[in-house]
Amino acid sequence: AELASRHLSQLLFVALTCGLAMTALSLRFVPHAIAAFVGSNTAIIPAACVYAKIRAFAWPAVLVTSVAQSASLGLQDVWGPVRCLAVASTVNLGGDLLLCPLLGYGIAGAAWATMASQVLCLLGPSHGLPPSTWGRFSCCARCTPWVASASPSRRRPCPRCSTSSPSPAPSSSPSPPRCPSTCC
């Protein structure tokens, strides 16, 4: 388990590094790339550049969230990523409705709403990865308490005796000790 956490920590670091590199590349080459794609319809280039440049700042969050969601699914936690996507979709929709027609930010408002939803998905209660996963980024585990919430080795209070007992172990390993009231 420690080796897997170390590998996952390295993957999170690689995702963060790649996200920062993608942000820098996107900010530098967005106008050229958009111009190459739109061809003769140059009227949309300014709006597309605004959208793409704002969205470029979300690359680190998008890549780290993708790795964290994959790890959650590998830990057989499907509800963490589902909650993440539900919250992100709701924030994106609300942000689009608020920023675009009501406040008049247009395409920039749509980009800010999407970016905010993706960053919120990274920072919000989504993946439940154990704190050891974050390695050198242990500050992430302190800043986002949800990180430790779904660890397979988490301890939970017993509803009857209020003592802390380990979560059930996988079926292939021996059962963990139970509290005297056998309620854990």
Your description of this structure?
- This protein has a two-stranded antiparallel ribbon.
- The protein is 61% helix and 3% strand.
- With 184 residues, it is mainly alpha-helical.
- A hairpin with a 6-residue loop joins strand 1 and strand 2.
- Helix 1 packs antiparallel against helix 2 and helix 4 packs antiparallel against helix 5.
- The longest helix is centred in the N-terminal third of the chain and has 37 residues.
- The protein is built from six helices and two strands.
- The two termini are 23 Å apart.
Short description:
With 184 residues, the chain is mostly helical. Helices cover 61% and strands 3% of the residues.
Count of strand segments:
2
State the share of residues found in helices, binned by percent. Answer: 55-70%
Q: What's the gyration radius in Å?
A: 21 Å
Q: Given the helix and strand composition, which structural class is it?
A: mainly alpha
Total of helices: 6
Report the order of strands and helices. HHHHHHEE
| Mean pLDDT figure | 76
Spatial shape: flat
Major sheet, described briefly? 2 strands, antiparallel
Query: How far apart lie the N and C ends?
Result: 23 Å
Low-confidence runs: 136-159, 164-173, 175-184
Strand order of the largest sheet: 1-2
Share of residues in strands: under 5%
